[in-house]
Amino acid sequence: MASVSRDRNGTKRILFMAGDGRRKTIRLGDVPVKVAEAFKRRVEALNAARITGGAIDGETARWLADLPDAMHEKLARVGLAEPRQNTCATLGDLLDRFEESATVKPVTRAAYRQTIGSLAATLGRELPVRAIRPADADRWHKGLADSELASATVAKRVKVAKAIFRKAVRWDLIESSPFADLRAGSQSNPDRASYIEAETTRAVLAACPDDQWRAIVALSRYTGLRCPSELSLLRWGDVNWERGRLTVRSPKTAGHEGHAVRVVPLVPELRPILLALFEEAEPGAEWVIPRLRVPGVNLRTHFQRIIARAGVKPWPRLFHNLRASCACDWVERFPNHVVAGWLGHSPLIAAQHYLQTRDQHFEAATGGAECGALVAQNAAQQPTANSRHDAPESVPAPTEALVGTGVGRATADDGGSCQTPRENEEMGPVGFEPTRGLPLSGF
Question: In CATH, what is the architecture of 91-187?
Fold first, then answer.
């Protein structure tokens, strides 16, 4: 038999005599008397089955299976139920299980580990998961906010922490997440945004030690490819010289339906750089930038040296801001949905993380020194844009090629294709690997 006892503060507990003759207690908390009485009857049924070795009835079995983990654990501690196998006893268990079950890219997994490490360092791996309270979440968050981490980094870690504890709720390890009310905030960081001017880009390209590095910079700056993930997968078969297009494979967005591959324009500024690299490639070469196929290559350190050699001031987020600068240029010339398709993200993401307000915008709005040049540029581009009937196939209007790169200049004799008549006549099949017989000596 079992009984319900009421404490002075109004909380209830169940008292019963176990099969070993010991008196045991199950604390229910401040629950109504009817709920406590119903719970007592279940305890009596479970205790009788334990003492006699019999099976519990189906209704009690279903009731036991539906119990929240916290209450089920109380029954397990007094010997009335078997511990649930999926229970994470500690925070360390939860963090390990979350990392093992995550199906993400290596870069994302590395970001997860930063959050996992900070949670373990602040709260302790041995802390029971059910003992974690919103106050612990606030303490962890305050530690991040008081550190020297950027606000965008703090926001990212909060977002991952919330995901970890949402998993814990989904796995029935806890009833509610102690991190649910934390506000992640914006992951954009305007303080680290920087527009890379054309003059700066030309200086950096001129300082590059070889054509592979020039291609890395140009592909990032002029076509907005993600470096190194998208650049490392670019093949010569992806370059359509005749139509002026590049096929880009994106590991970052491959998990989203229809976003694993996109097509971007082969802009005039990029074409001579790729042609120079094409001429140097071995017959049958597959990869456009073989250097990026080497595991562990340190692009950032080498790029910092190139920037220093160019005599320009380094900018934050070296490769991201090259891509962001391309987005800024394109969005001022083409519709948002077109630019979003070329860059492989939504217009909302572009507005949050890529697009920037520059001094030239204020000058143009107030009629300053840049106004006349900007108006003239737009007027010059408008007739070309109006003359095109197939907008998706259009590419940016030709501009002067990069000076000092040693790869020549783009021409506009044919309306922007950057090919001479001889090239148009003799260009071979598109989407092919380098061959010695290809007539490219004229570039």
Answer: Orthogonal Bundle (1.10)
